[in-house]
Amino acid sequence: MMQRIQRFGGAMFAPVMLFTFAAVVVGLGTLFTTQSLMGPLAADGTVWSDVWNVLLAGGWTVFNQLPILFAVALPIGLAKRQQARCCMESIVTYLTFNYFLNQILSFWGPQLGVDFSAEVGQASGLANLAGIKTLDTGMIGALLVAGIVVALHDRFFDTRLPEWLGVFSGSTFVYMLAFLAMVPLAGVVAVVWPRVQEGMRFLQGAIVSAGTLGVGIYVFLERTLIPFGLHHLLYAPIYYDSVVVDGGIYAAWANALPDLAASTRPLKDLAPWASLTATGWSKLFGVPGIAAAFYVTARPENRKRLLGMLVPVTLTAVLCGVTEPIEFTFLFVAPQLYVVHAVLAALLSATMNLAGVVGVFSGGLIEMSSFNFIPLGASHGGTYLVALGIGLVYMVVYFLVFRWLILRFDFMTPGRGVAGDVRLRSKEDYRRVMDYATPAPSSRELAANLVRLLGGAANIDAATSCVTRLRVGVVDPSLVASEEEFAASPGVRGVVFGGNAVQVIVGMGVTEVCGHVQEMLDAQEANAGVNGEGWR
To answer: Are 90 and 14 in contact (CB under 8 A)?
Structure first.
C-alpha cells in the first residue's frame, strides 16, 4: 500500500514541474501589462500590450488546464507498461467523461441542483475544459478517471481478441471498457459532486479562518511527511484543487496577479487564501543556516571538501526549492535535527503570515520571484522587505540552534566524525561525495548500478521519478542491497526502504536516470516475451 501511495504522489508531481517556466511568463507578463506600473506603454491597444497579452494567454495554459495535465500525468507514474498508450487512453476517456457530464447537466441540471446556464467559474461550480462546459471536479475528477483507466490498461491492454475483432484490441479495447465505465460514473458524479462542492466551500472558510496557527501546523506536517514521500498528498489538493480556493491556490493566484499588481492594499487582505503556500521560506532561509552550522562544526581539515558539497545543495534548495539533498544528509544521522527543522520551518512561516506576507512561496527563489517579487515588487515591495528581514533573522536562528544541538549532543553530521555511520550516512560516503578526484558516473552507468542494487530488472515491478528520488516498487525486498551498499555507490545520496517500496535519492538528474532504468525494464520484458515467459 505504501508503495502505491508513494508512486501516486510522485505521479501527481509531474505537471508541477511545468510551473517554473509558466510562472516566469505569467510574472513578467503581469508586470509588463500593468498600466499603473508601466504607464502608457501598457495601455490597451498598444503593440507592447498586445504582444504581452498573447504571451500571457500561453503562460496561463498550465494553470487553466491543470485537470487535463493530471489526467495525462497519472499514467506516466502508475501504468506498469506502455505508459504512452495509457496516457492517450486516459486523456480521451477524461474528455469523454466530461462530455457525458455536459449532456447530463444540460438535460437534468435543475433536478440535480445545478444551474447549468450559469457562467463558468465563481460560485457556479462549473468549469470549461478543452471547450467542454462541465462540472468543476478539478484534480480529483481527473485522478479518478485516470486511475480507472490505468487499472483497465494494466489488466486488459494485452487481451487477445479473435482475429476478426483484432482492430478492437490494445488501446481501443481499453477505451471501449473505459467508455462504458464513464457512463455510470458521470451519472454518480452529477448527483454527488454538487454536494461535495458545498462541503468544500465550508472547508475553504474553515481553513482560511485558521489563520497563522493553521499555517504553522500545515507547514510542520508538510516537512514531516517529506521523508516518507507522502507530502504531495498533503499539498496537492490545496495548491492545485479547490480545497482552499476555487481552482486551487496556484491557478487563483496566477489569475489574480493583475489585480494584485494594481493595488497597494495588504496582500493578506487581498488574498488571505494564499497563506498556506508558505513552505518555501525554510528553503530560502533555513537551509543556508543549516549548511553554515554543518560547516562551522566540521573538523577543520574537512571543511574545504565539505564546502564543495554544501554549496551546490544549498543553491539547489534556495533557487529551485529542492531540499532533499541537504535534509537527507542529517535525517538518518540525527532525526532529532529534522524534527527541529520542521518546527523552525513552521515558526518561520507563521511569523511571515503574522507580518502579512502571503503569496505563492512554496518553491525556491526562481518560483517566488516569478509569482511574487517580479510582478508585485513595485506595489508590494515594502512587504517583501519585511519578509527579507524576518528571513535573515531566522537564518541566524537556524544557524545558532543547529550549531548548539550538533555540539551539545555530538551529532555526526557531515565532516565531524570517524564513525562508520556518517557519510550522507557514513564517513566513506561523505568523502566519496566530496572528493573532486572521483568522477561522477553517467546517468546510464548509475541506472545500471541501481538496477543491480535493487535485485535486477526482474525484481523491479515499476519505477518512476520525483524531483530528486527514484521511486521503485520491488517484487522481493530480500533481494535488494543493504543501505550500506547503496551508500557506498557513486551517485547515490541516500535510500529509504518501506516494504516493497524503495526510494533512492539521486539528485536533480533523476529523470534521466529513471529513463535508463525504464529502458532496462522494457528490455527485460521483451526478453521474457521472446523466451515464452510472462511479464515476471
So the answer is: no
Burial of 228 (0-12, 13-18, 19+ CB in 10 A): middle
Helix (H, G, I), strand (E, B) or coil at 114: coil
Residues 314 and 508: their CA atoms lie apart, in Å, by 13
Using the structure block, give the residue that is written with the C-alpha cell 555540539. 407
pLDDT reported for residue 519: 83
Q: Does residue 530 surpass a pLDDT of 60? A: no
Which CA distances in Å does 42 have to 38, 58, 122, 262? 6, 18, 27, 13
- Quick one: what percent of the chain has pLDDT higher than 70? 87
* Max avg pLDDT among 183-192, 456-465, 502-511: 183-192
**Mean pLDDT on 256-282:** 90
> Which cell is 150 given?
490505468
Q: What is the phi/psi pair of residue 486, to 5°? A: -60, -45
pTM check: above 0.85: no
Coil, strand or helix: which one is 372?
helix
Closest CA to 200 of 256, 156, 248, 254: 248
d(CA 142, CA 67): 5
Mean pLDDT across 412-434: 47
Contact between 149 and 180 under an 8 Å Cβ cutoff? The reply is: no
Would you say 9 and 232 are in contact if contact means Cβ atoms under 8 Å apart?
yes
Please tell me what DSSP assigns to residue 441: P
Mean pLDDT of 462-491: 82
Catalytic residue of the set 86, 87, 320, 466 = 466
Task: State yes or no: is 86 an active-site residue.
Answer: no
Q: How far, rounded to the nearest angstrom, does the alpha carbon of residue 111 sit from its chain's CA centroid?
A: 39
Strands (E), 101-254: 126-129, 132-135
Phi (first) and psi of residue 502, to 5 degrees: -125, 130
Using a CB cutoff of 8 Å and minimum separation of 24, what contacts does 12-15 make?
A: 12/70, 12/73, 12/74, 12/77, 12/139, 12/143, 12/232, 12/233, 12/236, 13/232, 13/236, 13/466, 13/467, 14/69, 14/73, 14/76, 14/77, 15/62, 15/66, 15/69, 15/70, 15/72, 15/73, 15/240
Between CA 234 and CA 236 the distance in angstroms is 6
Residue closest to 277 by CA, chosen among 246, 244, 299: 244
Alpha carbons 501 and 519: distance in angstroms, whole number = 20
- Beta bridge partners, 463, equal 472
CA angle 306, 310, 316 (to 5 degrees): 160
pLDDT in tens, 70-83: 899 888 878 877 88
- Using CB atoms within 10 Å of the CB of residue 29, give its burial: 0 to 12 exposed, 13 to 18 middle, 19+ buried: buried
163: CB partners within 8 A, 6+ apart: none
Look at residue 23 and tell me whether its pLDDT is greater than 80: no
Mean pLDDT estimate for the chain = 82
Q: Tell me the β-bridge partners of 473.
A: 462, 501
Q: Which is more confident, 422 or 393?
A: 393
User: Do 279 and 345 touch, CB atoms closer than 8 A?
Assistant: yes
Q: Which residues contact 452 (CB under 8 A, 6 or more apart)?
A: 481
